[in-house]
Amino acid sequence: MNREYRYKPKKGRFKKRFTTIVLIAGLLAGGHAICKSIRDTGATNTNNVDYPMLTPAVTEQVMVTPEPTAVSTAVPTEVPTPEVTPITYVNNGVNKGDSVIAIKNVNLRLGPTTESFKLGELPKNTTVDRIMSVGDWDLIKYNGEIAFVSTQFTSVCDVDYNNDYYYIEEEKDIVRTTSGLYFRTGPSKNESYIELLPKYEELVVIGRAIPYSNPNDVWYLVKHKDKIGFVNAAYTISLKEKLRGTLPDVEDLTILKMAYVKTSTDLINSYGVAYKRIGTYQLVKVLIEYDDFCLVEYGDSVGLVHKNDIKEYKGTFVVVDLGDQKVYLYCYTDMVFEDVCTTGKNGMETRTGAFKVSERTNSRYFSEEAQARYMWARFDGGNGFHDAPWEGQKNFGKNSYRKNSGSKGCVRLPDSAALFLRDYIKVGTKVLVKD
Fold first, then answer.
1. CATH fourth-level superfamily of 10-51+251-313
2. Residue range 98-157, CATH number
3. CB environment 316-341: b (16+ within 10 A), e (fewer)
4. What is the pTM of this model?
5. More confident residue, 294 or 82
6. Number of helices and strands in the chain (H, E)
7. Quick one: fold of 166-241?
């Protein structure tokens, strides 16, 4: 970005009064203030109100010939009409419309980098449909699933299977669904669906697809957990478009990195005012980096935090959410797995903090309980991750059960989670426990 932000906190630390002045000057420069965009939607500035950047300005739950949803059938007051930029169909090298063959066994990955999560393997001499190219990587469809492969291990062939009915281009954005929405294997309601996404689900956009037969029918190619697929763009709301009210030169928006809050800090809203407190060990998504500050997403809100107050997480790491009683596995910026868990009971609660796995085995005997059969991974003193065959599967994820029947501080896992995580949790794996 060309805009220069000159934040210089006094004595190297974050100061509310100074930050308010600087952020008002920086964020409201050029007459593109967020406060103007908020006023345009009818909100009133009290300087003490949280204005989440991701709250949809209009309801887009129902359209003519709607995508099947699992939400309320209330009749909308108006039918939205998506704005569509005219498309000139040219051979720009993005939508290849052809196929590739693996010249040797090659890894299938969730993103166009060797650091991205491995989804499987494409066998040598297998011919697959190529959806698009990103640098030295091809996005291909194999056995009904979409993944990236390195062009170092593929060769273009003349066979064209089934992706010639749409045009696609690279796009970087973060969107949320405005209704229940089908996540599909292609940009059409005739394509099979992977799953039904809930309302307000966040998706990372990597491409924009338009069927040749209907230029008004825009679809997004997105990542959701460990899958890549398509959603109808008319049922989403774009974070990039919302931010452009304040940052008009934002062209690409994606999650640059994941980080946790080292010490409780303030999230700065669109008026340059500290409006929400972020507790220690909370997870944030870094969207844009400036000299001293980062624009981050925290829950459904977006704002600025000082770089000194957060710490980046790289590689593979595990997050335990005590409030939701869930465990998550991240690979860099991608959340690739989630499942329920049971943490410490009242009086012996699992401690929040940033830890590392110090011991790892595939089983361990608990004298007061039973044998953990699949995994034991110590990360905080005597506490660690383990499966719990003595605990009924229906009890996992319930705080009502945890309060009296939870662990002594360990994170108990159902068999499904233990069997998956044992391949990724190793000695040295980072663990974030947050409330």
1. SH3 Domains (2.30.30.40)
2. 2.30.30.40
3. bbbbbbbeebbbbbbbbbbbbbbbbb
4. 0.78
5. 294
6. 5, 32
7. SH3 type barrels. (2.30.30)
